[in-house]
Amino acid sequence: MKKSVFSFTHRIVLSIIGTIIIAIGIALFRLSNLGIDPATAANIGITEKLNMNLCNYQLIFNLLLFLIIFIINRTFFGIGTIINMTLPGYIIDFINLKFHQFNLHASLFWMQALFFLVSILLFYLGISIYTHAKIGVSPYDA
What are the tens digits of pLDDT across the range 20-56? Predict the structure, then answer.
């Protein structure tokens, strides 16, 4: 009995860590100015048109997508769904705020390329950790 509780707790921690790493990767993608994943690019574009924070828009969008997919097929969802649909937008906004506060930007191409490379590595590392937890996926992933 105790082992299963630890196992579930361990998987929640993995999901949170993976989600945080994904968000850091996305924030670095934005800093590199060399590209970003399509879902985040769409979210950023819409938030700029609506004059909203990325975190609030992403949460609203994920809730709507969650409701649609919940009706169609609930098997994809679990506690990891809640983690991944709520945390990334807020973490990305927080990290971007810190980048601006410290005037951190990639002004030279080699810096942009370095940020981009680190972003890719973090993004995929975070996804592998988050999906390995197997406690639900984000509405977008479902």
Answer: 999 999 999 988 888 888 888 898 899 999 999 888 9
Pairwise CA distance, residues 32 & 26, whole Å? 10
> Which residues, 6 or more positions from 53, have their beta carbon under 8 angstroms from its beta carbon?
47, 89, 93
Helix (H) or strand (E) holding 50: helix 38-50
- How far is 104 from 124, CA to CA, in rounded Å? 23
Distance CA 33, CA 23 (A): 16
Alpha helix stretches (DSSP H) within the chain: 2-32, 38-50, 54-72, 79-101, 109-132
Render pLDDT for 90-117 as a digit per residue (tens, 0 to 9). 999 899 899 888 887 778 899 899 999 9
Tell me the pTM: 0.85
Residue 137, phi-psi category: left (phi > 0), alpha (psi -120 to 50), beta (remainder): beta
Sign of CA dihedral 72, 41, 83, 19: positive
Lookup: tokens for 107: 């002004």
